[in-house]
Protein 1
Amino acid sequence: MIWTKKQIFILFIVAITSFMGTFLISSVNIALPEIEKSFGLNAIVLSWVITSFLLATAMFLLPVGRWGDLLGTQKIFKIGIVIFTTSSLLCGFVNSGFSLILLRFIQGIGAACTSTAGPAILVSSFLPQHKGRVLGISVSGVYLGLAFGPFAGGFLTQYLGWRSIFFTSAAIGIITVFIAFIFLKNDIVERKKTTMLSFKGTIFYMLGLIALVTGSSMIPKYYAWFVMLIGFVFLLIFWFIESKSANPVIETKLFTKNRLFAYSNLAALINYSATYAIVFLLSLFLQKIMQMPPHDAGIVLIAQPVMMAIFSPIAGRLSDKYQPRYLTTIGMTMCTIGLAAFAFLSQTTPVFLIVAILIWVGLGFALFSSPNMNTIMSSVDKSKYGLASGTAASMRVLGQIVSMTVATLFFASIIGNISIENVSETVFIKAVRWGFVSFAIISSLGIYFSYNRGKILRQNDK
């Protein structure tokens, strides 16, 4: 295996950008209690510090994916880095919770650009037999960010304040911007007679997501369910418009005619729906119930992403040799067992047991993620890499939104309009337990889609 200097730099830039996004996400999770104190936020509003970022990312991933196919993925990638870095810097200067949530939304737009363009750039720059390997390395960058984020975020929050997290992220972003503009040139895009996309359906898609997430934050108020119902209707309208459009943002036929593509994306949606809120819930649990300072809580939470970072490249490489569905099924099963175990958390749960479960879930997620991404990118031809990457990223972020929505739902219905700091331990643990029970049930559904997706057709099948 001999890679050129350009290929190595491309892989480095995409991996660093992957690290940058997840580093900020995981470190902010640790800083949530301090952010809550700074602005006097309640539990529901506090969750929007995370959710606003995810909502914006989900809203823009699909159109950005198609823009990448038409305008060039490297151009979209560089635009995303600039937006993300600028908004990260501004987050460090906010003076209200509303301003922070708004800037986090803008950050999400930048993340949509880099998340969509990154995998598409990689699979276009390397030989097909190296897809799983390079995607595994990129995914490893994601998990290194998740691993380093809680530790660094806890340290920064405890000794320099939560704002230093955003300044650190901006510094990494500035370095990445310079490297990207030096080594990523604007790609040559084949121009077609018709390059105009129909974004009429995308408007309904965006409004639907906003309605779903906003409605979930209004629970237990009666009109919350009506708002969420409107969201579902808008998403159905989006699907109908896209299926009839001559130039759609998303090709619905990939879901109705390509089982490998459809089941792999559904498996990703389910996996992230079940696992994303783990860090959110455990960060609050460790600091409130276990009385850990942010730094110590961050060290505990490192266990899961460290396993993901170590084993994702290995799983990706294995998926180049063996059918990915076997690896993803084992991984999804391990995640389900781990989530079920978290449902038994209590005041007396030893820390070493929490770490052991995090290690187990981290290994399961590593076995799932890289092979699943390899399957998605291998199920379409080269002209649809941007779309496939954008769709896969959309499934990831939609899953993350679902995960946070489920957590917010139980916080809203059980804890109510009270700050985490003031709620009783018994009530808080009840909300956390119901969250993990729901996630275990959701994860169990993914086992079916992981195994029954079908096989990748290639010459070296075993």
Protein 2
Amino acid sequence: MTTKGKQNFIIIMALAVLILIFAALNPNFLSKFNIVSMAQSLAPYAIMGLGVTFVIATGGIDLSIGTTCIAAAVIAGKLYMQGMPLGFTIPVMIAIGTLIGVVNGILVAKLKIPAFIATLGTMMFGRGLSAIIVSIPNIFFPNGTWFNRIFSNYDGIPVGLIWVILFAAICMYLMYKCKIGRYILSIGSNEEATRLSGINTDKYKIIAYTIAGFMTGVAAIFWAASFATVATATGNGMELDAIAGVYIGGTSAAGGVASIAGSVIGAIMLVVIRSGLNFVLARFNLNLNSTYVTYVLTGIIVVVAVLMDVIKNKNAAKVKVDKKEKKQVKKG
């Protein structure tokens, strides 16, 4: 089993243990209603996580995805409330997400602005501009239409999970079978060496951020389909949940290593923790805010995941040095 396979296996085992613990503490955790509810909330975070995996694989970061997701949903929703056909909201949301992704890519790759600063700027810009454009606190999408059945809940079937699997398969192909993924991983491993080998690193950085933006626009579709009311003030922190899932799933914060399957598993783990804590706290009447408890656990898990990645990279570098020294000794 490869290192990546072992890591995914460990995460899956940890996820299974969490599910068993929450189910034992409150059997309602595994009710059909809650499973469908978790699947509905999973889809946007998992899809955003899949997109931002490409950015993190370059050694970058995208803090704008949460705000962009909501901005795309509320702007498209405002147009729908003004008479635009519901079907047209889909390309509008995708276009907004993709546009922000392209802007992020240009800022980082061409203008050489640090990714943290560039995407922080577009995050604030998107949040403010969408609030100005929409000008009302809540946007309403319809319930019980083809839109909900295709992207959220089809007669109790959480179709969002099917879409997540489909997009994960597409992202796996792009990351592991196409030159796009190979070059993105190469940039994350050693950008200067990649550039000197003749690869247009700026181009593939822009592609990485564009993919993240496109997937954010797609995530907005699932958010709008799952939650009929979308508030313009939401979106803060969504990017942190999506990025945390990517780190938990085994994608290296330093770049060069990416796990598409791990990003999905990481997103599932965060959704399970959030929902499970709600049920546990309700079961034992604990006067605690589940959101804050989730933040505490997520913070611990992310730090541990990144620390393990740092230790793994240090050990790998040490092994390379030892091998090089041994070769030199033999030649001597």
Protein 3
Amino acid sequence: MSDFINNFWPMWITVIALGGIFGCALLLWWTSKIKVAANSDNTSGHIWDEDIREMNNPLPRWWVWMFIITIIFALFYLAAYPGLGSYAGKLGWSEVNQYDKEVAAANKALAPLYARFAAMPVEELAKDKEAKAIGERLFMNNCAACHGSDARGSRGFPNLTDNDWIAGGSPEKIQETITNGRIGMMPPMAAAVGNEEDVKNVANYVLSLSGSKHDSARALLGKEKFVVCAACHGADGKGNQTIGALNLTDNIWLHGVGEAAIIKRINEGKTNQMPAWGAKFTPEQIHVLAAYVWGLSHK
């Protein structure tokens, strides 16, 4: 990555941009210096198929002036706007600033609409048809890419329509999660558990906690080794929402079910991240979106 952020690349872009413009200007100047002799037949001397001759007519004046105007415009544009490597342009314009201004203008225009919802509790807001429609659009445009259009999630992305919450499903926790995002991390635990057989035994014990198909003999042996997992998941395997440790007893598997999938998690660990949306949404928008999400599991 460092190869693409050093000073060479801005200089390279600058040379290519200005070189192209001045190269075109030089070509235009050079061609204008070529004169056709008065006693010539006004051809370039190139002949195809014995009778097709290439004429040596000068470029139309309007075309030349359009070319010149384009070159002048390009120089003024590159002076005013970013386009020469790291040079920001005299006007200080950037797509990020432009985006922020447009978002701020849109939020200002929508502020009166959201003001009505701001004072309503989430439980009441989840029943409001207009608020639900707005929340659904916010969800579809921003959350559905991971959680699905039906909010039922997929492998690695939690289902938001049930009551299995990793970090808590209260209105306050949902708003906190949307605002700040979440990072869920399970470290590789194979070394702490023991050898390969111990890992397999623990995997079967984990399966037994939810009544899933497992090897009873291995599960019995794995119970003792599960103590290293209990620090996060609890002695009963019911998890800990404070630290985002999954409940292993409810037969809901975020990263795949079965002995092989659990062994993979014990050996490799897993890091999952939900981005923070506090910088994109206003508090009022987050309030409406949280109400919509909360309502998905509270029909």
